[in-house]
Design brief:
The chain is of the alpha/beta class. It contains twelve helices and twelve strands. Strand 1, helix 1 and strand 2 form a beta-alpha-beta unit. Helix 3 packs parallel to helix 4, helix 9 packs parallel to helix 10 and helix 11 packs across helix 12. Bound molecules: glyoxylic acid (GLV) and magnesium ion (MG).
């Protein structure tokens, strides 16, 4: 291990994160009663410019009036380049009471963006004597943000998670897409060569690099890496495949842009019974090995070692967190 210890951020469940437009207050109660681990009330891109002020008022009222239970609650503020952001921060914190847990910051481009927000939020919290310190969810969704992702991840002690905002990222990088967060059939390779009679065409995952890069930056700073939206909410199999590949790369959650996607995200991002059973067997086998003075052992004909224990422990801890939250 390095002498530099990576401190993990607040342990929150973040398997699913439901997006709810601040301009649609009729959706708030349903979101509060849903199975989403985190709900974010949006003041940014799901809200038309002429509805921004009204959406902010709706959100502030809902922070007081809606029973959000034990849900983690976030508000996505407008970007730093807009005339709305400063009032989003000031009014939501000053008038929203103590219920809010997180602020989601879109289109973060540099560490200085996070620093500036930290300063403003700290001033407002201190001025009103807010007891609970707000955490930050940062959306990486521009070429600039991805180029600076490491520095952004380490820019504030408030940082809790990095989110891959695939829709804006595609726009910013001018990637060719057919559907938000989905695959593009043009991103693929042909197997074999011209001499082969039969050649297969393999679709690739055009988001692999971006997600893998975000995961490394997040984990190196103890943050949760979260995969963003999958636009086709009538394609549960497509959503599941994309959530699975994000989980395989290390993400611990995915956005739900429609309530239909919540349970799918929770199922993919939580350990399955089979995974859990295996994790428990690994921990038992390693305990036995430790008692016998061995560093590595085999289980079912495969090598397991200290790294396997860490993964198994993380899985069991996650299952306990889920059990506690759903009890
Ligand atoms: C989310 O904000 C996205 O742009 O995908
Ligand atoms: Mg976006």
């Amino acid at each position: 291990m390095s002498f530099t210890i990576v401190e993990p951020t607040a342990a929150r469940l973040n398997r699913s994160e439901l997006a709810v437009p601040g301009s649609s207050p009729q959706m708030f109660e349903k979101a509060a009663a849903s199975n989403a681990d985190i709900v974010f009330l949006d003041l940014e891109d799901a809200v038309a410019p002429d509805k921004k002020i009204e959406a902010r008022a709706n959100v502030i009222q809902a922070l007081h009036d809606v029973d959000w239970g034990t849900k983690t609650l976030s508000v996505r503020i407008n970007g730093l380049d807009t005339p709305f952001m400063y009032r989003d921060v000031i009014e939501v914190i000053e008038e929203g009471g103590e219920r809010l847990d997180l602020l989601m910051i879109p289109k973060v481009g540099t560490a200085a963006d996070v620093y500036a927000l930290d300063m403003l939020v700290t001033q407002v919290e201190t001025a009103i004597g807010r007891k609970k310190r707000l955490g930050f969810e940062l959306i990486i969704e521009t070429a600039l943000g991805m180029a600076n992702v490491e520095a952004i991840a380490g820019a504030s002690k408030r940082n809790e998670s990095l989110h891959f905002g695939v829709a804006d990222y595609a726009a910013s990088t001018r990637a060719r897409t057919t559907m938000i967060g989905g695959p593009n059939p043009d991103y693929g390779v042909l197997t074999g060569g011209p001499e082969d009679a039969e050649r297969a065409y393999h679709w690739g995952d055009m988001w692999h690099y971006a997600i893998a890069r975000l995961v490394v930056a997040a984990r190196a700073h103890g943050l949760r890496p979260i995969d963003g939206p999958f636009g086709d909410f009538s394609d549960p199999a497509g959503f599941e495949a994309h959530a699975n590949r994000a989980a395989v790369l290390g993400c611990e959650g995915k956005w739900a842009i429609h309530p239909k996607q919540i349970d799918l995200a929770n199922a993919v991002m939580g350990p399955s019974e089979a995974d859990l059973e295996k994790a428990r067997r690994i921990l038992e086998a390693m305990e036995k090995a430790t008692r016998e003075g061995k560093g590595a052992v085999s289980l079912d004909g495969r090598l397991i070692d200290i790294a396997s224990i860490k993964q198994a422990e993380a899985m069991v801890a996650k299952a306990e967190q889920i059990a506690a939250a759903t009890a």
